[in-house]
Structure to design on (131 residues):
């Protein structure tokens, strides 16, 4: 996995690392059991402090996407949809509120959601939208 971050962007670097890993899982680039680089190695590769990488890995661990131990390091793990659904619903509500607060209408939100889902479609089963 090639991970890139914007060191001068507004999004914190640890959040960018977390987001890229989640996107790699969703696209199938990373699967359960895959190892991530050590915090020190990734920090060296990106030219950042290892505590920043540690913060991203810890966030992924708390979200149930990463298992961290001394022997195997950081390894991708999967959560069941039921474990994830409640937390995700709260984050989705906030994200949708942000879109509305910035003036996006319902149709624009739905189109962008559809485009984002289609980006992951080759890896995951497509949802039937014909009714």
């Amino acid at each position: 996995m090639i991970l890139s971050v914007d060191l001068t962007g507004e999004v914190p670097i640890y959040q960018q690392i977390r987001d890229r890993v989640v996107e790699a899982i969703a696209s199938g680039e990373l699967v359960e059991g895959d190892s991530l680089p050590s915090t020190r190695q990734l920090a060296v590769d990106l030219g950042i402090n290892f505590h920043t990488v540690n913060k991203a890995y810890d966030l992924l661990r708390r979200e149930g996407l990463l298992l961290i131990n001394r022997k195997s390091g950081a390894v991708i793990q999967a959560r069941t949809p039921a474990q994830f659904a409640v937390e995700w619903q709260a984050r989705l509500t906030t994200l949708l509120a942000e879109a509305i607060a910035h003036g996006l209408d319902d149709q624009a939100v739905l189109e962008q959601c559809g485009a984002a889902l289609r980006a992951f479609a080759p890896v995951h089963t497509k949802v039937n939208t014909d009714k």
Observations:
- Helices lie at 13-27, 39-46, 50-62, 81-101, 106-120.
- The first helix runs from residue 13 to 27.
